[in-house]
Specification:
Helix content of chain A: over 70%
Largest sheet of chain B: none
Shape of chain A: globular
Structural class of chain B: mainly alpha
Number of domains of chain B: 1
Number of helices of chain B: 13
Helix content of chain B: 55-70%
Order of helices and strands of chain B: HHHHHHHHHHHHH
Shape of chain B: globular
Number of strands of chain A: 0
Structural class of chain A: mainly alpha
Oligomer: heterodimer
Strand content of chain B: under 5%
Chain lengths: 270, 283
């Protein structure tokens, strides 16, 4: 027990130090926040521009797709804020800094995400959540207590799933240092994928991304549940509420991959 | 003009043969340097192909549900647009060039001033070499994936092929000019992270990569055509999918050439201003 509180204390110190140092220069931090707030807005611009030239996408109106986008952007921004820094692992491997982290008496993953915690990314989360709130108030949603609860947990379950992809993707760096971009086709690519209804994608691609990697559970299924619509692709209605289960499966798989990666890590020797 | 430069090495600007020799040597060096990053090239080409699939399916669905065409592109044209835009990301090198700003931060940039080649010319030569390699690797992979998986548009006017090559060449120079200016802001700011982020985000959304500019409201599209951004992707892509008439297409490429020249002059001007205020620490 004493060990646990000691660990908790250490992580809090690491995080606190990061937050203090990043907010020390107030003007610079404010500019960082403002530029970060831009990122979800630009993606939104592309989505809205697409709906200027077409009335529907996959049979869904702009309002419906905006709900999917809001869910996906919120989940991604939360995951990016908490574990997005794991992408930097290939720099740690290349420069040998991972060896230093491995000899400390704290969890490797927890250290990596706390020592590089980037507070400015909170601006993206705030903007994404604002878009989600606007989207659900504008869409025609038959509100029930279950749907209100779903709106609460869907972005969190989605963030866990995105987080699992971030961690599993970065594990590749243990074997292939220059792999960074490959991982981003599943993390940033996943964000793009989940912003649109999955029935627009080709069958093989959809099977791999929506079902294989579980991305259907981030934006598409929860949005269907909120809107009270059945899946035009024919999935059973109960599946629309299964995001938490999918995120637990993904997190478990990522944990296994990560442990395997750490155990088989061989230093670059530099 | 050259008296303004801090360049200490012998002036070769009035010696064209040596200038050409230096330029082509740097060009080859750029080609060779980037051809050694094999893993990174494979990883990037893979990522471009995944994003090609993502964009292509969404825009094809849009074309289908809009009744056949979107923003003036039929399904074959929009698919070609998407796959070539993914190939051009690496060819023009939209993101990830920090050579100059890194050298400014560490102070290594001083060495660039000792060379008998103007820094803007020197970096441009290396960048063109890099682009030539990227055209054979980063451009070819998404194009091949697109050809295999989708119906692409074959240009009907034979002149479109050579014009596309010219247009891509100009796009590389325009993109280089923009990147040089973003990097050169390090002379004043030292930390270019913020400027870089603004460039990354705006270049992704406003060059025609995310969606063609014709998807935007007319006033926004007109505003963007008054900037160099469409010259980077939208212009070469419109050349190859033949969206405009021949005179309009030629005017667009002429516009690219004007931006390329203007940006290179601006880069030289910024470089001169930077050299005047630069303080070289001893040692």
């Amino acid at each position: 027990m004493a060990e646990l509180t000691g660990r908790w204390h250490a992580y809090r110190h690491l995080l606190g130090a990061q937050v203090r140092s990043q907010t020390a220069y107030r003007a610079s931090f404010a500019i960082d926040l403002a530029t970060n707030a831009f990122i979800p807005v630009i993606d939104l611009l592309a989505l809205l521009a697409t709906f200027r030239v077409t009335p529907t996408l996959g049979g869904f109106t702009a309002g419906d797709v905006l709900v999917m986008y809001g869910l996906s952007a919120s989940a991604f921004a939360l995951a990016d804020l908490v574990v997005g820094n794991i992408e930097r692992i290939r720099i740690y491997v290349r420069e040998g800094l991972l060896d230093a982290i491995l000899i400390r008496p704290l969890g490797v993953l927890a250290q990596l995400v706390t020592v590089d915690f980037t507070l400015r990314r909170i601006a993206r989360l705030i903007v994404a959540l604002a878009v989600l709130v606007i989207a659900v108030t504008r869409a025609d949603i038959p509100w029930t207590p279950a749907r209100v609860a779903l709106l609460g947990w869907a972005p969190i379950a989605g963030a866990v799933l995105f987080g699992a992809i971030f961690v599993a993707g970065s594990t590749v760096a243990f074997w292939w240092i220059e792999s960074g971009e490959i991982a981003s086709s599943f993390t940033y690519g996943g964000r793009d994928f989940t912003s649109y209804p999955i029935n627009v994608y080709g069958q093989l691609f959809r099977r791999l991304f929506a079902y294989g990697l579980g991305f259907a559970f981030i934006g598409y299924y929860p949005a269907l549940a909120l809107l009270g619509r059945s899946d035009p692709l024919g999935a059973p209605d109960w599946l629309r509420w299964c995001a938490p289960a999918a995120s637990i499966v993904a997190a478990t798989a990522a944990a296994i991959v990560w442990r395997f990666g750490v155990r088989h890590y061989r230093s670059t020797g530099s | 003009m050259c008296s303004d430069l801090a360049t200490a090495a012998p002036d070769t600007t009035r010696d064209p043969p040596r200038q050409i020799w230096a330029f082509s040597a740097l060009f080859l060096a750029g080609f060779r340097r980037y051809s050694t990053y094999r893993q990174a090239t494979v990883a990037a080409a893979f990522t471009n192909s995944v994003f090609g699939l993502l964009r292509c399916f969404v825009l094809l669905a849009a074309a289908r549900e809009a009744g056949g065409a979107v923003g003036g592109y039929d399904p074959e044209q929009i698919a070609t647009y998407v796959w070539l835009s993914q190939g051009l990301i690496g060819t023009v090198m939209l993101w990830g060039w920090t050579d100059l700003s890194d050298r400014i931060r560490t102070g290594d940039v001083v060495a660039d001033l000792l060379r008998p080649v103007h820094p803007v010319t020197g970096y441009l030569a290396v960048d063109l070499g890099r682009a030539a390699y990227a055209a054979l690797s980063r451009f070819a992979v998404p194009l091949a994936v697109g050809v295999v998986l989708f119906d692409l548009y074959a240009p009907r006017r034979p002149g479109s092929y050579p014009l596309f090559v010219v247009s891509v060449g100009l796009a590389v120079v325009v993109c280089f000019g923009c990147r040089y200016l973003v990097n050169a802001s390090a002379f004043w700011l030292l930390d270019v992270r913020g400027v870089n982020l603004v460039w990354t985000v705006s270049s992704a959304a406003l060059t025609g990569l995310a969606v063609p500019l014709s998807f935007f409201p007319e006033w926004l599209a007109a505003l963007l055509w008054a900037t160099p951004l469409p010259s980077i992707l939208q212009a070469p892509l419109d050349v190859i999918v033949e969206r405009q008439s021949v005179p309009l297409t030629l005017a667009m490429v002429a516009g690219q050439a004007a931006w390329a020249a203007a940006l290179l002059l601006l880069c030289r001007h910024v470089q001169r201003r930077a050299e005047r205020r630069m303080v070289i620490q001893g040692g």
